[in-house]
Amino acid sequence: MDREEKDFLLEKIMIEYGNELVRLAFSYVKDAETAKDLVQNTFIKCYKNLDTFQFCFRRINHV
């Protein structure tokens, strides 16, 4: 997967799940900035491992 594809997929994931993940993180940490940082760190890890995650997404979508 090239960088453009990774960038596109990450943006799509962030738009679809970002706010919901921040709300979930906030429910645990009770601090908005900490919740945003946790989600940002999660998205960074996702980006670094997107090739693996993409395989998982494809399997989930085909089930």
From TrEMBL:
GO molecular function terms noted in the UniProt entry: DNA-binding transcription factor activity
An individual GO BP term: DNA-templated transcription initiation
Transmembrane segments: none
Residues covered by the RNA polymerase sigma-70 region domain: 16-54
One Pfam short name: Sigma70_r2
UniProt cross-references to SUPFAM superfamilies, sorted A to Z: Sigma2 domain of RNA polymerase sigma factors
InterPro entries: RNA_pol_sigma70_r2 (IPR007627), RNA_pol_sigma_r2 (IPR013325)
Designated name of the protein: Sigma-70-like protein
Organism: Ureibacillus acetophenoni
